[in-house]
Amino acid sequence: MLVEYLEDVLDLAMEVRMSVERVDLSADLGVSPGYAYAAKARGGTHVYTAGSVPVDRDGNLIAPGDLEGQTRAVIANLELVLDRTGVTPEDVVKTTIYVAAGEQADLPRVWRIFAETPLAAAPSTLLGVPFLGYSGQLVEIEAVAITGVP
Known about the structure:
Layout: H1 2-15, E1 19-23, H2 26-29, E2 38-42, E3 45-48, H3 67-84, E4 92-100, H4 106-114, E5 124-129, E6 139-147
Parallel strand pairs: 4-5
Antiparallel strand pairs: 1-2, 3-6, 4-6
Helix pairs in contact: 3-4
């Protein structure tokens, strides 16, 4: 009887699916520039990425001094990490974008490129910071994703 109960519980657990609801708060907070203010997630497997950086497989900085080039390289590296962990950009529920900005105007330059990707649908924080981990690094993006139970 206990074995049958445990089998039923396991079957039920396997039927649980992830759901992500993007929360529209535009009536309360104004229209966002292309992202959800919040996401509510239930069930599934959580994936937390380290910050993706603009380096190639040999550890060489990509596009030194080129904010847009580094942004594209970081997005490509992040998409690779997501793919290898079994999630898609649509599974992302939160991103944080760090920009080693010389001035505030550098931040929207990064956002315009990021906004062209499916990653931009998730709630996001865009920050200007004085330095990042690699010498010459200008952009870093981290993500949190949730995917359904297989």
